[in-house]
């Protein structure tokens, strides 16, 4: 599906979608439990992959008609060996989290995904499973899916880099809680995307599981049981997805835009509020009521590091292209290992729209004062975050902007274009 956006103003109220990161963890935690009800989940292509994995390991997942509630019957810490290959589709979070689950069962599980997912690095997690005396191999011996994992690990100590993916840490902590001996994680490099592990620790705590940071990394005791209070868990709003709404407001909401479900949490991507504030956006966050009001503003370039907030790079790049001055996005090399190389993708697609952009190995520099955004046909790269960021750029570009492959927003924000349309944006599908 291609979507065409023409210059528009937006106004009104938009509710942020539920958090994808929290939903993944909540579904798998319910799977590790005897069962639980997950309220207000994000139902998307990625989270459905995690639902399928829980079912493959012997659980069941029932979605209410209004998609506001998931009733999960779990496998109680003892996953079955799946009858078939687990297809994680395009969801890297699913693959990494349930790879550690596979290590708990004695036999072997095969995990795969689409072309993009089969190109993403899994080697450090496979090595960690082997350090725990499990079996873990890449069928092509290149550290990428398809993966074959099993061995019935009992826990132990692992060394693993922290600068490739924080999801490795999440996977080991979640699985480690139900091993007999627990898991101690020694990080061999600095941890990037650290707030995502904070999300994991928060979800584990809500499910009654104790895990903590140590001087070396992280630790989780074994023999624990997953059991949320009252048998229920509620998913908060998603700041990664909210970033596109807030950016649209800062660029095109002459009469203001109100974004709801913006309650504080461990999400690192809430840093978008600080970024917008530093750029000069007229913005007010009512944390108690979970509401952010933002209006069209004259923005100025900033320097911002995305070590802990890689998913914000596309949004910040778009804002920088519409701002005065220079926006310098640093510490970004790990952003190249997402659904696509997001550093190159934003550099190339914004350039098509008339932006002056310089791509470096671990940096993206956007020269807003030299940019004059004009409509163009841009490639969404089958990446939900690239698609939504380019669509926001289309709100202020001169002429028509057509984003190809726009259906891939279903990964994290399935009704994104419906929401934009409801706010007054000119959207043609």
Structure, described:
With 429 residues, this protein is of the alpha/beta class. It folds into two domains: 3-17 and 237-428, UDP-n-acetylglucosamine1-carboxyvinyl-transferase, Chain; 20-234, UDP-n-acetylglucosamine1-carboxyvinyl-transferase, Chain (Alpha-beta prism), CATH 3.65.10. The protein has twelve helices and 24 strands. The protein has helices at residues 20-32, 45-56, 92-102, 123-131, 167-176, 194-206, 239-252, 271-279, 313-322, 342-352, 384-394, 416-422, and strands at 3-6, 12-15, 35-39, 60-63, 69-73, 86-87, 108-112, 135-138, 147-150, 156-160, 183-187, 211-213, 217-220, 232-234, 257-260, 282-286, 291-295, 303-305, 326-330, 356-360, 363-367, 377-379, 401-404, 426-428. The strands form six sheets. The protein has a four-stranded mixed sheet, with helices on one face. Strands 2-15-17-16 form a four-stranded mixed sheet, with helices on one face. A four-stranded mixed sheet has the order 4-5-3-14, covered by helices on one side. Strand 16 (282-286) and strand 17 form a beta hairpin. Helix 1 crosses helix 6 (194-206).
Count of all domains: 2
What is the CATH class name of the largest domain? Alpha Beta
Q: Count every helix, treating DSSP H or I runs of 4 or more residues as helices.
A: 12
CATH topology value of the largest domain: UDP-n-acetylglucosamine1-carboxyvinyl-transferase, Chain
> Which class best fits the helix and strand makeup?
alpha/beta
The main sheet comes to: 4 strands, mixed
Q: How many β-strands, per DSSP?
A: 24
In CATH terms, what is the architecture of the largest domain?
A: Alpha-beta prism
Q: Could you say which overall geometry the principal axes of the C-alpha atoms support?
A: globular
**β content, as a range?**
15-25%
Strand order of the largest sheet: 22-23-1-24
Binding site for phosphoenolpyruvate: 20, 92, 120, 167, 342, 385
Subcellular location: Cytoplasm
Subunit structure: Monomer.
Binding site for 3-phosphoshikimate: 20-21, 25, 165-167, 193, 311, 338
């Amino acid at each position: 599906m291609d979507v065409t956006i023409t210059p528009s103003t937006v106004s009104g109220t938009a509710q942020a979608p539920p958090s994808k990161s929290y939903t993944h963890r909540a579904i798998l935690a319910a799977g590790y439990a005897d069962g639980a009800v997950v309220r207000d989940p994000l139902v998307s292509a990625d989270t459905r992959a995690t639902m399928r994995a829980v079912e493959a390991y012997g659980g069941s997942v029932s979605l209410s008609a209004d998609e506001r509630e998931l009733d999960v019957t779990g496998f109680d810490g003892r996953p079955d060996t799946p009858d078939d290959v687990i297809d994680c589709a395009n969801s890297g979070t699913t693959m990494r989290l349930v790879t550690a689950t596979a290590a708990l069962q004695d036999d072997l599980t095969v995990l795969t995904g689409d072309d993009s997912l089969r190109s993403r690095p899994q080697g450090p997690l496979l090595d960690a499973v082997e350090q725990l005396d499990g079996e873990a191999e890449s069928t092509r011996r290149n550290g990428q899916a398809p993966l074959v994992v099993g061995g019935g690990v009992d826990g132990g100590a692992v060394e693993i880099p922290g600068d490739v993916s924080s999801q490795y840490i999440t996977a080991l902590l979640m699985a480690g809680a139900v091993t007999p001996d627990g898991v101690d994680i020694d990080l061999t490099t600095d941890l990037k995307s650290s707030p995502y592990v904070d999300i994991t620790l928060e979800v584990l705590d809500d499910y009654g599981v104790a895990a903590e940071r140590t001087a070396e990394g992280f630790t989780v005791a074994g023999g624990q049981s997953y059991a949320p209070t009252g048998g229920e868990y509620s998913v908060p709003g998603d700041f990664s997805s909210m970033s596109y709404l807030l950016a649209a407001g800062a660029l095109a909401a002459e009469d203001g835009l109100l974004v709801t479900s913006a309650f504080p949490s461990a999400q690192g991507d809430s840093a978008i509020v600080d970024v917008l504030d530093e750029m000069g956006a007229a913005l007010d966050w009512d944390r108690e009521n979970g509401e952010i009001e933002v209006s069209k503003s004259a923005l100025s370039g900033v320097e911002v590091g995305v070590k802990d907030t890689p998913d914000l790079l596309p949004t910040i790049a778009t804002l920088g292209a519409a701002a005065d001055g220079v926006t310098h996005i640093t510490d970004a090399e790990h952003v190249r290992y997402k659904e696509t190389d997001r550093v190159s993708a934003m550099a190339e697609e914004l350039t098509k729209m008339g932006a002056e952009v310089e791509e470096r190995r671990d940096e993206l520099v956007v020269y807003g004062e030299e940019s004059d955004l004009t409509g163009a046909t841009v490639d969404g790269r089958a990446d939900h975050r690239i698609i939504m960021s380019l669509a926001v750029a289309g709100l202020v570009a001169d002429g028509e902007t057509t984003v190809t492959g726009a259906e891939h927003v279903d990964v994290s924000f399935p009704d994104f274009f419906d929401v934009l349309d409801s706010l007054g944006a000119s959207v043609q599908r």
